[in-house]
Amino acid sequence: MKDIKETQTEVNGLPCRIWEKGEGEPLGFLAGLGGLQKWPPLLDLLAKTRRVIVPSLPGYPGALGHDLLDSQLDWVLAAQELLQGAGLAGCDLMGVSVGGSLAAEVAAIWKSMVKRLVLLAPLGLYDEAAPVYDVFTLSPKDLPGMLCADPEVYTALGEVPEGADAAEWRIEQIRAGEAAARMLWPLSNTRLEKRLRRIVQPTLLLWGGEDKVLAPSYAGRFAEAIPASTQVEIVPGAGHLADLDAPHAVSEAVRGFLDEASIA
Amino acid sequence: MKLLWFHLMPYKELPEDFREHHPSIWVDIDSRLFDPQRAHVMYNEFMDELEYAADCGFDGICVNEHHSNGYGLMPSPNLVAAALARRTADTAICVMGNSLALYNPPIRVAEEMAMLDCISGGRLIAGFPVGTPMDTCFAFGQNPSMLRQRYLEAHDLIMKAWTTPETFAFNGRFNQNRYVNIWPRPVQKPHPPVWIPGGGSVETWQWCAQQDYVYSYLSYFGYKAGQATMDGFWREMDRLGKEPNPYRAGFLQFVGVAETRAEAEKLYREPAEYFYDRCLCVDPRFASPPGYTSEATLRAKVKSQLTQVVERAGIKDMARTWDDIVERGYVIIGSPDEVAEQIREVATRLNVGHLMLLMQFGNMSSELTNYNTKLFAEKVMPQVTGLFDDQWEDLWWPQPMGKESRMPMKAVAG
Fold first, then answer.
1. Do A178 and B144 touch (CB under 8 A)?
2. Helices B77-87 and B36-56, interaxial angle, to 10°?
3. Domain range summary for chain B, segments of one domain joined by +
4. Which of B28, B31, B139, B189 could make an S-S bridge to B67, C-beta 3.0–4.6 Å?
5. For domain B2-413, which CATH number applies: 3.30.1330.40, 3.20.20.30, 3.40.50.300, 2.40.50.140?
6. Inter-chain residue contact B290 with A167, CB threshold 8 Å
7. Inter-chain touch A66–B145, beta carbons under 8 Å
8. Could you say which of A70, A139, A181 has the minimum Cβ distance to residue B144?
9. For residue range B124-165, what is the model confidence (pLDDT) as tens digits?
10. Per-window interface: B 127-186 vs A, CB < 8 A
11. What residue ranges in chain A does DSSP mark as E strands?
12. Which residue from B112, B127, B94 is spatially nearest to B6, judged by alpha carbons?
């Protein structure tokens, strides 16, 4: 991958990959379900104006150590340690899906860790009227169509690159599934709702209009619970991982929010 | 060798077109198919059948644990085992077993099994399964990524509870108890024999060897498909320097015996097809939650798939019609002599000293079940029971109290 710098930090003594591209003010990015095995187009778009720093959470591609995390406190501390190690303390932070859930936790618990917050379809809440889809029952064949409006986008991200060890590549994907299950099983309710009232950072809530995992109605619950100024934007036609489905729309919304919020 | 009579307790009145209209017999099976008044009859017949097997001279009777499952009506095998303990005198009671991570705190298992051992006068075999994904992760909501660690810790806690005379504090990763001191304590010392039902993971084999437990391969797919797994088990035992004592292993096998093979074909076809077609209909959504399979086992599996090595027999490509079911050895059928020959072959080829026989399967009537049991006991058992005993000792069999000090079980007297 051209122009992408790869380094490492440690969480609980185990290595976690950091990808980085672009120049300017740093913007942290925590990926969604499945993590990132490849650098996706959205990050190129964001890197045009920002130094985009992308650390991998424990158990997601490029990072180990999910099996040391037994509780939500362990996960939240791991996310904080990861962001700190990636040099992202006090920076703008964007999180998607599972990454969004932890971005919200860190912002709520350590006010100074996060400047402005972008949450794209963050997990962590459970609404009985619109239950979170049980993604852990999905076969590898059905997963892409559930996570993305265009399954091809997700499939392409997971395709084995030339020269890679196919078995290890597949195991990395399954491990990412396990890392998600470890934190979210069985309902994806991490009780994040209790802590949302502590978020004081300006927050953008983005949601794929076609999110089949987490209905866009959750955006309202987040906006209501977060006392800081929040902005909700629905990305039409995009699924749960709208960052993969609609990189242009997402990057425009993110840049618009960050520019505007910096003026204010 | 030891012959154990195993009951799954299947619900016997699933509709004929179950598979067409219901994605799964497990986890989200339609509860409207369950008629409690019919279950009243089934439970009592099933327990009668187990008691009958004990009366007929089987070495052990076997129950197991399933949840939200239409072919396994025993969420609590301990309840059934307690009733059986009161109605049998000398037979081993094999609880195959309690899924340790589902009990909170796991000392519940230590307590209940100690009760069973006391009630039965030391006839308990303690089975410790991890439990299937359907039972543990979906029906009981356990986190698949922590299940094995929880299981192993629960095992350590139970063992310590059984064998430590003093009250102790347990400071585990998942369990903290200030005062562990179970009361009652098991009759058998240091503890009842432990059997581990498992699939084909090398880690389980190694753990069984290390703890000196029996490994039981509970497959529904018979001895032909089981060969590769048992070969792998014995290779690993050899590598670890364990002697090939067949009593180190258990194996599950369906059996239907009749006066002639033709008669057996006629009698057992329907219940066998009921089981394989209607009962073994499990939605793949519930088969492999992420984290349930350890990374080492996963790596071996992924690599073997990539190199096109033949996969282990599974539900995906199983036989559902009679000829295939028999041809592939899922169910052993025939006249008593034919069945005896096949049982000998299974036991010697797989080197298994504990055979767990499923002689009630699917919607088999109680009458046919008892016929199967009796004919086997009278005409097959004598032909196979002495197998292995000139060479090997069963070190994993219950050691009950002396007969003179055991209570006569009243209900058996008649």
1. yes
2. 50
3. 2-413
4. B139
5. 3.20.20.30
6. no
7. yes
8. A181
9. 999 999 999 999 999 999 999 999 999 999 999 999 999 999
10. 137, 141, 143-146, 173-174
11. 5-11, 14-21, 26-30, 51-55, 91-96, 114-120, 203-208, 230-235
12. B94
Q: B414 pLDDT band (50/70/90 cuts)? A: very low
As a whole number of Å, the CA-based R_g of chain B is 21
What angle do helix axes A97-109 and A72-85 make, rounded to 10 degrees? 90
pLDDT at B54 over 80: yes
Read off the amino acid at residue B8.
Answer: L
At residue B37, the 3 state secondary structure works out as helix
Q: Is domain A5-263 in CATH 3.40.50.1820, yes or no?
A: yes
Which of A228, A220, A225, A226 is closest to A261 using CA atoms?
Answer: A228
DSSP for B214-277, please give it.
EEEE--SSHHHHHHHHHHHHHHHHHHTT----GGGEEEEEEEEE-SSHHHHHHHHHHHHHIIII
Where are the domains positioned within chain A? 5-263
Are B289 and A137 within 8 A, CB to CB?
yes
Helix, coil or strand: residue B197: strand
Smallest Cβ distance to A182: which of B146, B284, B299?
A: B146
Give the three-class secondary structure for A62.
Answer: coil
Q: How far apart are CA B51 and CA B412, in angstroms?
A: 9
Nearest chain B residue to A67 by CA: give it.
B145
Q: Where are the beta strands (DSSP E) in B270-403?
A: 331-334, 354-358
Quick check: B372 pLDDT over 50?
yes
| ipTM field | 0.94
Whether residue A83 contacts residue A72, with contact meaning beta carbons closer than 8 Å, is answered with no
The residue of chain A with its CA nearest to that of B287 is A137
Q: Give the 3-state secondary structure of residue B154.
A: helix
